[in-house]
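Notebook entry, structure prediction.
Reason for the run: the old model in the group folder had no record of what sequence produced it. Starting over properly, with the input documented here first.
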Amino acid sequence: MTNNVAGISIMAFIVSVAISVGYYQFVYIPQATATPVVPEEVLNPAESVEISIAVGSAQPSQTENYVPKEIDGALGLSNKFIWTNEDSVPHTVSSDTAYVDPVNGEFNSMDTIGLIPANEQYEFTFTEVGEYPYHCEPHPWMIGKVSVTEGRF
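New structure, fully documented this time:
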């Protein structure tokens, strides 16, 4: 009788471990790592918003670095932002809050293209409503903010 109970207990344990592993591998992991479904208008908005990195921005005395310093966009209409470095010195666009977009990843030029060279661009498409303050890594006095509001699409 004791052998039967021990055998049944071992079999129950093995079955429960197998079910747990199967659930983890085939249900939990795919759901946890899935990219959210986002409307096409949000992924590829009709308009983009342009921001310039002004000439002389590497100098602390320069107060106009990102032009405009604060800018708005609308989700599904104008939630793609393009920074153009018009300065001769490389710069970054780096999130103050370490924001990670669920579709497009980290909002930080250093993690995608690195420093933005003179006359080059950095693009980022936000897929969530919010306020996104940012700065330049080598020049922390350079600050800006993007706000994305709900759009009608």
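Summary: The chain has a mean pLDDT of 91.
The old model has been moved to the deprecated folder.
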